[in-house]
Amino acid sequence: MGESRPPQLGRWSFRLLLGIVSAATLALLLFGPWYVPSGKETVYWNALVAFLLLGIACDSSFLPLSRIAFARVGTSVAFIPFISSVLLFARPWPMVIAGATGLVADAVVRRKPLLRVWFNTAQYMLAVGLSAAAYQALGGHVGFDEFTFSFVPFAVLVLVFFAVNQGSVALAVSITSDVSLRETWTRIAGASLAYDLVASSLSILLCFLFIKLSIFGLAVLVLPLFFVRHMYQMNLQVERVNRELLELMVKAIEARDPYTSGHSVRVAEYARSVARELGLPPKHVDDIATAALLHDVGKIYEEFAPLLRKEGRLSPEERMLMQGHPVRSADLVGTIAEFRGRVQADIRNHHENFDGTGYPDGLASDSIPIGARIIMIADTIDAMTTDRPYRKALTLQRAFEELNKHAGRQFDPKLVLLVCKSPGIRRLLGPQLATDGTMPPSMQASSRTLRAGARAGS
Q1: How far apart are CA 427 and CA 446, in angstroms?
Q2: Which residues partner with 454 through β-bridges?
Q3: In angstroms, rounded to a whole number, what is the distance separating the alpha carbons of residues 207 and 213?
Q4: For the sheet containing 450-452, what is the strand order?
Q5: Fewest CB atoms within 10 A around its CB: which of 39, 52, 238, 254?
Q6: Rg (CA), the chain
Q7: Residues linked to residue 388 through DSSP beta bridges, in sequence order
Q8: Is the preceding peptide bond at 92 cis, omega within 30 degrees of 0?
Q9: From the centroid of its chain, how far is CA 248?
Q10: pLDDT value at position 438?
Q11: Cα–Cα distance between 371 and 420 in angstroms, integer?
């Protein structure tokens, strides 16, 4: 697992969570009545096997959902047969179906490490067990002798399932990274919440078809199940392609100057880390990171080309010309409707000084958008900690000294204090930049991933 906290803390915190989830799952299994069908009830046994196979097939078709810090979470449509099993089978069989599904899909199909297989299997079983208990406590009908549907027990079943499933995954990601529980849960739940709620209604149809048509009813619903998966996949692909196109455009612009190669991507990472530690809402954090990625796109205009290629410092006239790039960048970004407003304002104002001496509008203090203030610091950190034609990179400590020196004039002093204490910035840059200005291994390895289950899969 990728860890941003000290390795021991991240490892033992996760194992503590794993122990709690496992103990709660075991308690649900041990306490309460069990229904054990007799050997002659072949219909019941066949139904259990059919739902187990359907769950494994659904969970094996796993989709990466999003990256949170160094963690990657994902989704599958296995929650549909899981929820259906609660309506059809008495305890403990829905938990057995969920546990066996997670075990086979993770250990055999995806070949995950033991601890991750254990965690995903346990949290699947806990989510199903608690949601089944809530459903039955509210008088929900269990069995496939006849089709009976009650809205309130079913709605509570769905809410409890997703709350436990997503909440346990969000907590696992949070304790092994520097991302707050609020943000991890928001990103996991918000990424496809509408799809989840709509798709949950297929559980009712699955039960109805199974009761009326037996095993053949499951076959009828296979196509809709994988249509839902296809909707997830299309949505994720659109988001991924849009982000990759933005990064491609930025790389094309930065290719003019070897000294700024990768600059905007790094600035976006620094800005995201600072915005996250400031406690801003996840959507605002994403907007700031997007603005940071695109803050220099205006330099694509030919008027800036000679300035980007020039070695050494710019003349006063050249500096005046270069100061037009925030406006050109904001205007260019404003051609995309989604980026008008906050993203565009952050880009336009990312060179405004805190004391009002910046450009292009001479804004000061809190009148400068918080995103612009963050990008100003992130931009400066990257400029100081990478080689430039006229000087070698500064160490991280030296860069912090410069930030403090200009706090209250160029930079927001509260943000400077936050950045200098930021574990996220130190994680991205390392305890200290090498004296030769090269980036430390921690920055080069920032693409490490952690996989944990979300919805009904990981």
Answers
A1: 9
A2: 457
A3: 10
A4: 63-68, 71-75, 450-452
A5: 39
A6: 26
A7: 391
A8: yes
A9: 21
A10: 40
A11: 18
Q: What is the distance between the alpha carbons of residues 325 and 301, in angstroms, rounded to a whole number?
A: 9
Q: For residue 170, what pLDDT is reported?
A: 87
Walk me through the domains of the chain, giving residue ranges and CATH numbers: 7-222 (1.10.1760.20), 242-421 (1.10.3210.10)
Give the C-alpha separation, 412 to 355, whole Å.
Answer: 9
Which two three-digit tokens encode residue 415? 């943000």
Residues sharing a CB contact under 8 Å with residue 222, sequence separation 6 or more, in sequence order = 54
Note the pLDDT of residue 18. 92
User: Minimal CA–CA distance to 418: which of 264, 271, 268?
Assistant: 271
The answer to whether the CB of 130 falls within 8 A of the CB of 84 is no
pLDDT value, residue 444: 35
Structure tokens at 401: 């000294």
Whether 202 contacts 225, CB under 8 Å:
yes
Measure the CA dihedral 152/158/160/166, to 10°: -160
Regions of the chain with pLDDT less than 50: 1-9, 69-70, 431-458
Provide the mean pLDDT of the chain: 79
Read off the pTM: 0.65
Q: What is the pLDDT at residue 445?
A: 31
pLDDT confidence of residue 22: 95
Confidence at residue 165, expressed as pLDDT on a 0 to 100 scale: 92
The reported pLDDT for the residue numbered 440 is 38
Q: Which two tokens stand for residue 181?
A: 């529980």
3-state class of 281 per DSSP? coil
CB distance 356 to 364 below 8 Å: yes
CA dist 99 and 4 (Å) reads 30
By the 8 A CB rule, do 246 and 293 touch?
yes
Two structure tokens written together for 56: 């494994």
Query: Residue 17: how many CB atoms within 10 A of its CB?
Result: 19
Q: What is the DSSP string of 62-129?
A: -EEEEEETTEEEEE-STHHHHHHHHHHS-TTHHHHHHHHHHHIIIIIIS---HHHHHHHHHHHHHHHH
Residues 6+ apart with CB under 8 A from 255: 261
Angle between helices 370-384 and 396-405 (to 10 degrees): 130
Count of beta carbons in the 10 Å neighbourhood of residue 173: 28
Q: Please name the residue that has the structure tokens 């449509």.
A: 77
18: which residues sit within 8 A by CB, 6+ positions away?
115, 118, 119, 122
Cβ atoms of 385 and 440 closer than 8 Å? no
Gap between the Cα atoms of 300 and 307, Å rounded: 12
Distances (CA, A) of 43 to 47, 54, 145, 220, 329: 6, 16, 11, 19, 66
Q: Determine the number of helices (DSSP H) and then strands (DSSP E) in the chain.
A: 19, 3
Helix 79-88, helix 151-175: angle, nearest 10: 140
